[in-house]
């Protein structure tokens, strides 16, 4: 292997003049670097495996940052053109991309956002970071604001003969309330209102700053939408309604007004440089390395947290995270770790096991937690031992609390003509059975278990944030915060996105290697495919019923039911969602 690398190095030396020439001629004067966003957007995306090369990848915000940084420093580049067909990401992702565009704008570059298919609130937030916004002539811009909807299913469960029992620590820990209430609690309405206030303020501020209008006018733009084509221009939300082939003319990219259309387009196209190819050329080393470079490992915690894989979707399991964290600890090339969290929480047991592994890692290497759109409850539990916690102002976090749920199926079985006979030994032998309600003694035992879990959660946060449990408890009680609120109360260290987390990690790495460390998304080593397990008697029906019930519920309750179906007994969940 070393011999092959040496031979490659010889070829690099021989081809050096050609490489230097290609690097110089690759970008014409006055070029625009083009970036396309269509579909899923994530902070950082793993390099595809060989069989995944043809699959559509999510747009990486980190790669957009590299394009913006390179273009901002390149005198040959006039600006950046971002075409957004759809933006499938959260508010934190939208504000991260917007901040990057504003950074290029501040560097003196023209920044153009083209919305050929129009867009909603998140597309508009991104577009307000540009110097010019173009919208499709027949497209709509609909930055209409935010709404959170919750279905309350208590009466439906009563009619079905299913009796839910929900136990929570903290008045704001409202996951599960739609199972046992007919209407929203005051605490849930209060915290959802604060979340929506934060999102709404971010939207209005983005329009006001980006479009150069006052806050009142920005408020009117939101409330008077949606806008069709030219209406968006008249409202001040866009600069022109154009088709894609008309953009070069709008930017003055033609030398001769009488030239043929085909010639004009060809000239313009030469000045449009694909962002991925542009960065690849600038990053391509003139001489290849002989050894493996140092890296910053990105360990993802994405999806609800569980102890075991679920048949209902993609969950973050403690086993998967353990394998990644231990690999990062043992690899001398890993100089630091970014714990990338996009999770609403989940199993208290799995969260604690993840936390333990991260504590061990943080004793040996720098660890920074980067919260994406949601890092609440179990997601915050996992982040607590990091040396720094970074999130966007509109990230959702907190929800320090515990909730448990169980479902009594006895009334339903009675309706179906099914009777249950039980022979038991042990006062609480039926405590975990779904066929009968809990006794007062069993309820007291469950509450003690929840209280112990809640106190453990408080201790974890107190240790991680260098606080006392008495200082943490008023901030807990299941309350959900925006990132900006969390920083104000000391639960978060820095406001920013993945690029900010990267800076924080690099600041903790030795100076002689920090600039050479690139982020690499970790993947756990593959394990043999287990033999298919046959469900125990009645297990299949229980899972099917849980899946049907989960499909009818809002996100927090859906996750709670899904985890309950996998055998999780004590759950820590986020409390609500804003669309």
Question: Mind sketching the topology for me?
Answer:
Elements: H1 2-14, H2 16-25, E1 31-42, E2 59-60, H3 61-73, E3 77-88, H4 91-106, E4 110-115, H5 121-127, E5 132-135, E6 140-141, H6 154-160, E7 163-169, H7 177-180, H8 186-211, H9 215-223, E8 227-228, H10 230-235, E9 240-241, H11 247-250, H12 261-270, E10 272-274, H13 275-283, E11 295-302, E12 305-306, E13 316-317, H14 318-330, E14 334-343, E15 345-347, H15 348-362, E16 367-376, H16 378-383, E17 388-391, E18 396-398, E19 402-408, H17 410-415, H18 440-465, H19 469-472, E20 480-482, H20 483-488, E21 494-495, H21 498-506, E22 518-521, H22 539-551, H23 555-565, E23 571-573
Parallel strand pairs: 1-2, 1-3, 1-10, 3-4, 4-5, 5-9, 11-14, 11-22, 12-13, 14-16, 16-17, 16-18, 17-21
Antiparallel strand pairs: 6-8, 7-19, 15-23, 18-20
Helix pairs in contact: 3-4, 3-13, 4-5, 5-8, 8-9, 14-15, 22-23
Average pLDDT score: 84
What is the CA-atom radius of gyration, in angstroms? Answer: 27 Å
* Spans of at least 5 consecutive residues with low confidence: 256-260, 528-542, 569-579
Query: Which percent bin holds the helix content?
Result: 40-55%
Question: How many individual helices?
Answer: 23
β content, as a range? 15-25%
Main beta sheet strand tally, sense and closure: 8 strands, mixed
Shape annotation? globular
């Amino acid at each position: 292997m070393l011999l092959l690398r040496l031979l490659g190095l010889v070829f690099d030396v021989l081809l050096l003049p050609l490489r230097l020439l290609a690097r110089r001629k690759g970008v014409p004067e006055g070029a625009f670097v083009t970036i396309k966003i269509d579909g899923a957007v994530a902070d950082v995306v793993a390099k595809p495996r060989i069989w995944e090369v043809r699959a559509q990848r999510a747009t990486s915000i980190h790669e957009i940052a590299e394009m913006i940084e390179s273009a901002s420093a390149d005198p040959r580049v006039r600006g950046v053109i971002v075409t957004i067909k759809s933006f499938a990401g959260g508010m934190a992702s939208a504000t991260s991309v917007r901040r990057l565009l504003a950074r290029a704008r501040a560097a003196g570059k023209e920044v153009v956002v083209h919305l050929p298919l129009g867009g909603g609130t998140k597309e508009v937030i991104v577009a307000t970071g540009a110097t010019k916004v173009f919208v499709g002539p027949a497209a709509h811009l609909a930055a209409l604001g935010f709404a959170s909807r919750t279905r309350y299913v208590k009466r439906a469960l009563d009619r079905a003969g299913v009796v839910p029992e929900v136990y929570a620590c903290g008045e704001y820990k409202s996951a599960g309330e739609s199972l046992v209430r007919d209407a929203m609690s005051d605490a849930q309405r209060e915290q959802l209102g604060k979340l929506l206030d934060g999102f709404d303020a971010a939207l209005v501020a983005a329009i006001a700053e980006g479009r150069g209008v006052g806050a009142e006018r920005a408020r009117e733009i939101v409330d008077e939408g949606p806008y069709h084509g030219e209406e968006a221009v008249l409202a001040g939300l866009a600069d022109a309604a154009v088709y894609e082939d008309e953009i070069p003319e709008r930017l003055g990219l033609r030398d001769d007004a009488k030239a043929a259309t085909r010639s004009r387009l060809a000239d313009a196209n030469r000045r449009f440089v694909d962002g991925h190819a542009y960065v690849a050329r600038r990053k391509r080393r003139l001489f290849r390395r002989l050894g493996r470079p140092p890296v910053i490992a990105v360990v993802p915690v994405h999806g609800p947290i569980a102890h075991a894989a679920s048949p209902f979707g993609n969950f973050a399991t403690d086993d998967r995270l353990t394998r990644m964290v231990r690999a990062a600890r043992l690899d001398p090339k890993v100089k630091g770790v970014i714990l990338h969290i996009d999770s609403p929480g989940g199993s208290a047991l799995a969260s604690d096991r993840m936390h333990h592994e991260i504590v061990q890692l943080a004793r040996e290497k720098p660890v920074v937690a980067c919260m994406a759109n949601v890092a609440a409850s179990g997601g915050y539990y996992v982040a607590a031992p990091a040396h720094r916690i970074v999130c966007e102002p509109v990230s959702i976090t907190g929800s320090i609390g515990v909730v448990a749920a169980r479902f009594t199926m006895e009334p339903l079985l009675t309706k179906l003509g099914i009777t249950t006979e039980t022979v038991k030994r042990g006062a609480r032998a039926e405590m975990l059975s779904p066929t009968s309600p809990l006794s007062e003694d069993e309820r007291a035992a469950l509450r003690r278990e929840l209280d112990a879990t809640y106190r453990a959660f408080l201790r974890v946060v107190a240790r991680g944030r260098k606080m006392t449990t008495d200082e943490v408890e008023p901030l807990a009680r299941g309350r959900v915060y925006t990132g900006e609120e969390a920083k104000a109360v000391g639960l978060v260290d820095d406001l920013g996105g993945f690029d900010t987390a990267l800076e924080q990690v690099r600041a903790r790495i030795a100076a002689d290697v920090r600039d050479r460390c690139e982020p690499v998304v970790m993947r756990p080593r593959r394990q043999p495919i287990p033999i298919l397990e046959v469900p125990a008697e009645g297990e299949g029906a229980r899972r099917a019923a849980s899946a049907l019930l989960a499909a009818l519920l809002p996100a927090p309750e859906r996750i709670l039911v899904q985890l309950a179906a996998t055998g999780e007994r004590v759950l820590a969940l986020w409390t609500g969602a804003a669309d």
